[in-house]
């Protein structure tokens, strides 16, 4: 079984194809996965590997580790574009998420005031007042929407909440409007006898309608770039991503491809 990618709370900096030089913050266990989705393409593997034994990092621990890393990078003259909440699961499930965001903003301002703070979220915790407040404070509030069709979300993203629907998450993302970036993973393939393809005309039409409803700052389209736990998934090549992006731009939506 494919296991977690990140074995540290603070990792990198690494080069992100969408964000640049990125220092990562992993609010999941260092030896397991905690997520409200169980995506077929997740680079950190399936949830079945378990949450591990280390537990979620404490707020004070995150702040101490982040400050030490930022101080070191500042002293060494290392470049940094963004601090990114990502890692082995969904960062917004951490019970101290809002406080951690406050600490990160304070430390960013002290050491790298021009650096952006990004959160990569699967959108499942939207509607929590604490989570929403925190996401409104960051520079790049990047929210997942891989499909605007509920059945596709359940096949591809596999939410742990069986009542999760496309309609409800689109409404919650729309509450952010221009204060969010929507990120959509496009791919095709199969898993356990089910065909998966969120690039069909029906899927893209539904996404365009959702993007119009949300009215985000921009949409990020991308496809798989590393090994995935479900092996029979196919990357969508850049020329097809660009073709899909053109359709979306024709609807008046700002789109980037990476």
Provide a quick synopsis of the model.
This protein is an alpha/beta fold and 258 residues long. It has helices spanning 59-76, 97-111, 129-137, 150-156, 166-174, 201-214, 238-250; strands at 10-16, 20-26, 82-86, 116-121, 140-144, 181-185, 187-191, 194-197, 218-222, 233-235, 255-257.
Outline the structure in words.
- By secondary structure, the chain is an alpha/beta fold.
- Helices cover 33% and strands 21% of the residues.
- The chain contains seven helices and eleven strands.
- The chain has helices at 59-76, 97-111, 129-137, 150-156, 166-174, 201-214, 238-250, and strands spanning 10-16, 20-26, 82-86, 116-121, 140-144, 181-185, 187-191, 194-197, 218-222, 233-235, 255-257.
- It has an eight-stranded mixed β-sheet with strand order 1-2-3-4-5-6-9-11. A three-stranded antiparallel β-sheet has the order 8-7-10, covered by helices on one side.
- β1 (10-16) and β2 (20-26) form a beta hairpin.
- α1 packs parallel to α2 (97-111) and α2 runs parallel beside α3.
- 42% of the residues are buried.
- The mean pLDDT is 95.
């Amino acid at each position: 079984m494919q296991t977690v990618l990140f074995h540290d709370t603070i990792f990198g900096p690494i080069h992100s194809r969408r964000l640049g030089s990125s220092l990562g913050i992993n609010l999941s266990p260092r030896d397991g996965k905690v997520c409200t989705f169980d995506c077929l393409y997740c680079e950190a593997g399936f949830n079945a590997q378990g949450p591990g034994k280390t537990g979620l990092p404490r707020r004070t621990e995150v702040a101490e580790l982040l400050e030490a890393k930022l101080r070191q990078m500042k002293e060494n003259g290392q470049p940094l574009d963004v601090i990114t909440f990502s890692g082995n699961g969904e960062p917004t499930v951490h019970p101290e998420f809002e406080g951690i965001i406050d600490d990160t903003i304070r430390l960013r301002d002290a050491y790298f005031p021009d650096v952006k703070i990004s959160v990569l979220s699967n959108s499942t915790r939207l509607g929590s007042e604490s989570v929403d407040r925190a996401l409104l404070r960051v520079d790049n509030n990047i929210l997942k929407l891989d499909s605007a069709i509920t059945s596709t979300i359940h096949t591809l993203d596999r939410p742990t909440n069986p009542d999760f629907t496309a309609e409800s998450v689109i409404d919650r993302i729309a509450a952010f409007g221009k204060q969010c970036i929507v990120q959509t993973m496009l791919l095709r393939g199969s898993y356990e006898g089910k065909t998966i393809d969120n690039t069909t005309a029906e899927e893209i039409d539904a996404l365009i309608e959702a993007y119009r409803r949300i009215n985000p700052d921009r949409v990020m389209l991308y496809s798989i770039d590393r090994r995935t736990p479900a092996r029979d998934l196919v990357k969508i090549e850049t020329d097809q991503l660009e073709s899909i992006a053109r359709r979306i731009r024709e609807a008046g939506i700002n789109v980037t491809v990476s």
